[in-house]
Design a protein that fits this description.
By secondary structure, this protein is α+β, with helices and mostly antiparallel strands. Helices cover 40% and strands 22% of the residues. The strands form 3 sheets. The chain has a 7-stranded mixed β-sheet with strand order 1-14-2-4-7-5-6, sandwiched between helices.
Length: 399
Amino acid sequence: MSVVVENSTILSALTERFNHVFGGTADLEYFFSPGRINLIGEHTDYNGGYVFPASITIGTTGLARLRADQKIKLYSENFPEAGVIEFDLADSHHKDGESWANYVKGMMTMLQNAGYTIDRGFELLIKGEIPTASGLSSSASLELLVGVVLDDLFKLNVPRLELVQLGQKTENDFIGVNSGILDQFAIGFGEVKKAILLDCNTLKYEMVPVELRDYDIVIMNTNKPRALTESKYNERFAETREALKRMQTKLNIQSLGELSNEEFDANTALIGDETLIKRARHAVYENNRTKVAQKAFVAGNLTKFGELLNASHASLKNDYEVTGLELDTLAETAQKQPGVLGARMTGAGFGGCAIALVAHDNVPNFEKAVGETYEKVVGYPASFYVAQIGSGSTKLDVE
């Protein structure tokens, strides 16, 4: 699958940069991997529930070509101070501190462990447009970018689902974040103007046309620095796992995503710990909210969908406790604005982004009002952009 590129100016600048960094542009191939937003269904993916993400047109561009030797050379426009990162093919299994090169090494390692042959070196230049630590999934975007680059350069023919799963494996086993499959799946399988309803238990999915009529999805970035590995993400993962284990003493379930709200409420005594009950309640209720939200969305009932966005944010704030001052200020201020149907944090939380469903004509006033309140409360500005829903990770068709 390849898509024709619209923004040739960016690509010609990157081609020039590649020439400057690595010398020459013969046999150069071009790739793009998107970021993602999750419309609803947060922290449900590793609890065997439903998620409802979409890939966006902001993402990571890569230029790559094979080498004749065993050297891998990497350069990122986002970290020019790191210069060219170079290592031998034989050293691709060794993690390199906190370097972005670990995402490349991780994908190489996972592909090789899965039986795919990477037998030569290559050069890769990347430029990411996704704000780091925004919660729009810059890491999964990079993992899947590397995946499609290696798949193409080495003619591996990796099935897309396997590439997505190897991206998640890279995140879990190489980088050390216990994330579910939401990010990699949304980025690997995304389609223009479609969201994905994914059952994380079975990996069955449905592509849902995004028909927003007179509304826009506005992404609101807190601009708060955040690193998932240092956040409480792994702690929440452990808490919901523990709650599940306690419920399994009496209930025959494999994940919290299997429970209805009523079944959960009737069995909270099995958990017996107020904090763990709150964490599990979010996972169960959010999962069921997501199923209702998708039906409302398909039926064109955007008002109902907006109400569910608001309920999702409240649950993430009160039960899961992953929002914080910045996200609460954005989402709760957004909810009060004219023309807004709903707003919630998106992504892992602890900073990052929130989204709002805003009447198209109200967007300029919305951004001004929310921006002013946010800066007054938090002390620095937020960033706003309207999300365009684009294609998944792919090779670009460059003339």
